[in-house]
Sequence to fold (159 residues):
Amino acid sequence: MSTHIDADGNVMMVDVSGKAVTERAALAEGRIGMSADSLRAVREHAFAKGDVLTVAQLAGIMASKRAADLIPLCHPLPLANCKVELTVEDSGIHALCTVKSTGRTGVEMEALCGVSIALLTIYDMCKSKDKGMEISGIRLLRKSGGKSGDYKRPEISGV
Fold:
């Protein structure tokens, strides 16, 4: 039986009231590829909409805090910390989102939401110059806490 469907076929939120309160953390990443001209404009703060990286960081943090408003049946969580890091690389921008909370359910969706919206914000702010940008590689790198324990993507080292 699905955890989101009851015996009568009704949609339901998972009951986490019996779970232990533990420290939870998650780290997610993603990338947006773009032209060299667009990357130069990002570095030089040359977009009319403002500082692309700062606005995208703020958008990612805000999205992490609102994951439950965007994803059906996702529990609203009080976040203890959220950090979005954006690194300009040779062919695009790499995004990392780290989220921490103390609660009864994990913060993986909040980290993935933060990365996704940070990258979508970059796309939105840069689309006037480069409609061919490509968002890719959005994935969970690691998580800790909770009944299922820790997870670290097998091919990841040093993260």
Q: What stands out?
A: Strands lie at 22-33, 81-88, 92-103, 134-144, 151-152.
